[in-house]
Design brief:
Length: about 450
């Protein structure tokens, strides 16, 4: 039987289960969406009961295989979402959506009490984001649903609930707590005082190191299980494992998030106002990050372009980078994410010209966002993963925006899953880490210089 680790990778849209061998190759996978349901207010939310069944059935399937020996299990999942369990370990409430509207009066009451000096967002490295500040979800329950709050034994962030299903061991993970929750005091490296004063600390199980495991018995099999990780922190682990020189990672998708594990300066008020925050990586160190809604903006604008020029929405995939065309276009003096939305499309003679302008505008905004977390650090390389890493215009323009740095398109197959496996490597895998976890392609402003693996 081939030794493997099972990784549950729980996204908002797709739920995935992988088997990964000792060389960090994915040898088996299954995935599928689960339909959302509604909470008691009619707001959409994850069907936690269906998710529970999907996890249990998937693990039962892989543990019953004669081809693979599952030595360990771990999980990566989206953050800012609590599963609330009662004293019997049963789910006690809906898995409330982090986009659920937050009551304005209650939020004001919270900040009147705990942000009198105006420094709470800075101390907790959390922009004010409503329900995306998952600590405020628990504050809402205490004050608006006190009976439910009183029945809760544990509030488990989603990755830790998945781990709980495997082990029966309730724990808290620092990567989940350290992700814009407003729960963690980054200056003192402990929970913020308001968490204790509100009685919320009693609902949070003990902290469990992200690289530690507990023994588990599942379907008659003995194995070890990690405590689960927040997906953004998990995706960073292959890069931390592969590179020691300072770097920044731009993780691109709907959101483009620049992560700099080598920026140890406290968040400033100006950075918070520009959508900067800090994550805690799996070793507990802060990672300064800047967010930009660039993938969403790109999607909106290519639909606008398609309608105007009478082409398919994905026509941009056929557009080749043209440096001569770039030189004829205007670069925005005041970068803004929605700069292109205000440009009349009648100004452009072709789709190609308009798309080059769109990407020029987006990368100008990206440069500003990324620079926020590069300042005063020794970063020499930028890695780009996700959708934009496969967009030649984005990559060439980004290389031109940072001519003093090496800019790479990087790829790790299923980075969040691989990261969750790497976090507990020493507990299930006696082999040394492979040297080709990350594939890199170096970009220059005018072309690709080389392809490498590192």
């Amino acid at each position: 039987m081939q030794p493997v680790i099972a990784i549950l990778d729980i996204g908002k849209t797709n739920k995935k289960l992988f088997l990964i061998d000792e060389h960090y190759r994915i040898v088996w996978e299954k995935n599928g969406p689960l339909p959302e349901i509604s909470d008691e207010d009619g707001d959409p939310c994850e069907d936690v009961q269906a998710l529970t069944r999907w996890v249990q059935e998937g693990l039962r399937e892989v543990l019953g295989m004669e081809t693979y020996l599952v030595k360990a299990v771990n999980c990566s999942a989206y953050g800012a979402s609590f599963v609330l369990t009662d004293k019997n370990g049963q789910v006690a409430a809906p898995l409330y959506n982090y986009l659920k509207p937050y009551p304005a009066a209650l939020q004001q009451r919270f900040f009147d009490l705990y942000n009198t000096a105006g420094d709470l967002p800075g101390i907790t490295a959390s922009p004010v984001l409503g329900s995306l500040n998952s600590g405020l979800q628990l504050y809402r329950l205490k004050h608006l649903q006190p009976a439910l709050f009183g029945s809760i034994r544990y509030a488990l962030h989603l990755p830790q609930y998945i781990s709980f299903l495997v082990t029966g061991h309730a724990c808290t993970d620092i990567t989940s707590i350290g992700c814009h929750t407003m729960l963690w005091n980054f200056r003192e490296q402990q929970y913020h005082e308001w968490v204790r004063r509100e009685g919320i600390l009693d609902k949070l199980p003990p902290l469990h190191p992200s690289d530690a495991v507990v023994p588990a018995q599942l379907e008659g099999h003995s194995l070890v299980a990690g405590g689960g990780l927040h997906d953004s922190s998990a995706a960073l682990i292959p890069y931390l494992a592969g590179f020691t020189e300072p770097f920044a990672l731009i993780s691109t998708g709907t959101w483009c998030i620049t992560l700099n594990p080598f920026n140890h300066h406290p968040l400033t008020a100006a950075e918070l106002e520009q959508d900067c925050l800090c994550y805690l990586e799996y070793k507990g160190r802060p990672v300064k990050a800047a967010r930009l809604f660039a993938g969403h903006e790109h999607e909106q604008q290519v639909q606008r372009l398609a309608a105007h020029f009478g082409v398919a929405p994905d026509h941009y995939r056929q557009v080749e980078y043209d440096p001569a065309l770039i030189h004829t276009l205007g670069r925005p003096q005041q970068p803004a994410l929605n700069r292109f939305a205000g440009r009349p499309l009648t100004d452009f003679p072709s789709y190609e010209a308009a798309y080059h302008q769109l990407m020029t505008d987006l990368v100008a905004a990206q440069q500003h966002s990324t620079q926020l977390v590069l300042d005063n650090t020794d970063v020499k390389r930028i890695f780009v993963d996700g959708g934009f890493s496969r967009n030649p215009l984005y990559m060439h323009l980004l290389a031109a925006a940072f001519p003093h740095l090496e800019v790479y398109a990087a790829s790790v197959a299923q980075a969040t899953a691989i990261g969750a496996a790497l976090a507990i490597h020493r507990h299930w895998n006696s082999r040394t880490l492979p040297g080709d976890l990350v594939e890199l392609r170096l970009y220059k402003a005018e072309g690709v210089k080389q392809k490498a693996r590192s």
